[in-house]
Amino acid sequence: GTNMEDMSFIKLPGNEGKQPMIVVSEDSRDDAEVLVCFRVDMKHRFRRNLMKGEAESAMTKQKLQQRMREQFQKAMGGTPSWAETLVKTSGLTSCRLCVRDQVKKCLHANSARPSEDRLTTVQFHPSAQVVMTAGLDQSLSLFQVDGKTNPKIQSIHLERFPVHKAQFSRAPDHTKEVVRSMKINGDVSGVAFSPDGSKVFANSEDGEVYVWDMRSSRCVNRFTDDGCVRGTSIASSQNGQYLACGSQSGVVNVYSQEACLNSANPKPLKAVMNLLTSATALTFNPTSEILAIASRAEDEAVRLVHLPSLTVFSNFPVAKRKIVYRASCLDFSPHSGFFSLANNKGHAPLYRLLHYKEF
């Protein structure tokens, strides 16, 4: 119940970036209560923009947290619903999104049978609580996902057949007949369908994006991915709201899907620049609230982007030691309860997204 205005502050020698001080309550007389707290150097380049004047060259941690909360809420127009959970669990919502209390690292999805070579595929079954992995060791495996032991269901070895891509099929009957054939200028670097399957988006290594109508096989739009020299990946959100385009430079442009259908020169809603090497994998979660991006050219190069605030979660991957390594494939479980990836060490790191209650 001590009033901070009635306190005197005595500086002590401090560590780098912090100035410890003793706070003495003047109304406690001879038996003065002594508290030790720290002041943070606000002139550091990561904190300068939070200062409101030279008088704030040093600030207590509590004051800094309050300032960060105020700035974040001002930018967001108030506390968004997705951040309320963080406020309740950690008491702090900073100007950078935090997943520390929202993501739990689990046992690798394929821990019961790691691959002996690079994994190329990780995919959750669309209805069962099962995940599939496949890779260059010529094998394909299925695991029951419980987040604890993830027992193996079955593993198949394919003689002299390294698997570069595997996928669950929703349609069991295949005629092997070519239904549509569409051509673009340059090599195709990625393909994504609209949620209803009526449109298909493709980007080229030349940096162009093509949109086709599947019923008429007609190209209904074509545009240059903003600032892109060479396209590397593409993904469409399941709610039909977003289209993400990855480039060799590592930039991922997030567009309004409606603009991509109707504008000859759509501008990105956000240019995500957190990857420093080629953006080779993109995927939206089933609720279209998260975009996962990765580069297989660098270790730990995986990021999660929150939608619609279009802000990158600041501390993912969360591990202090390397776990992700070079990721070539990303996937979310049907209700976003789990997130996994395939890496070059033959493992499929698995994460439980605590915000989502179902598998």
As laid out across the biggest beta sheet, the strand order is: 1-2-3-4
**N-to-C series of helices and strands:** EEEEHHEEEEEEEEEEEEHEEEEEEEE
CATH fold-level topology of the domain at 104-166 and 185-353? Methylamine Dehydrogenase, Chain H
In angstroms, what is the radius of gyration? 25 Å
Low-confidence stretches: 1-37, 81-96
- Report the average pLDDT across residues: 83
Main sheet specs? 4 strands, antiparallel
What percent of residues are in strands?
35-45%
Query: So what's the CATH class of the domain at 104-166 and 185-353?
Result: Mainly Beta
Q: Overview of this structure, please?
A:
It is a single chain. Helices cover 9% and strands 36% of the residues. It is mainly beta. The two termini are 46 Å apart. The protein has a domain of 232 residues: YVTN repeat-like/Quinoprotein amine dehydrogenase (Methylamine Dehydrogenase, Chain H). Strands 1-2-3-4 form a 4-stranded antiparallel beta sheet. It has a 4-stranded antiparallel beta sheet with strand order 5-24-23-22, with no helix packed on it. The radius of gyration is 25 Å and the shape is globular. Strand 15 and strand 16 form a beta hairpin.
Q: What is the fold's blueprint, element by element?
A:
Elements: E1 7-11, E2 18-25, E3 34-41, E4 58-60, H1 61-76, H2 81-90, E5 103-106, E6 119-124, E7 130-135, E8 139-144, E9 152-157, E10 188-193, E11 199-204, E12 208-213, E13 218-224, E14 231-236, E15 242-247, E16 252-256, H3 257-262, E17 270-272, E18 281-284, E19 290-294, E20 302-306, E21 311-312, E22 327-332, E23 338-343, E24 350-353
Antiparallel strand pairs: 1-2, 2-3, 3-4, 5-24, 6-7, 7-8, 8-9, 10-11, 11-12, 12-13, 14-15, 15-16, 16-17, 18-19, 19-20, 20-21, 22-23, 23-24
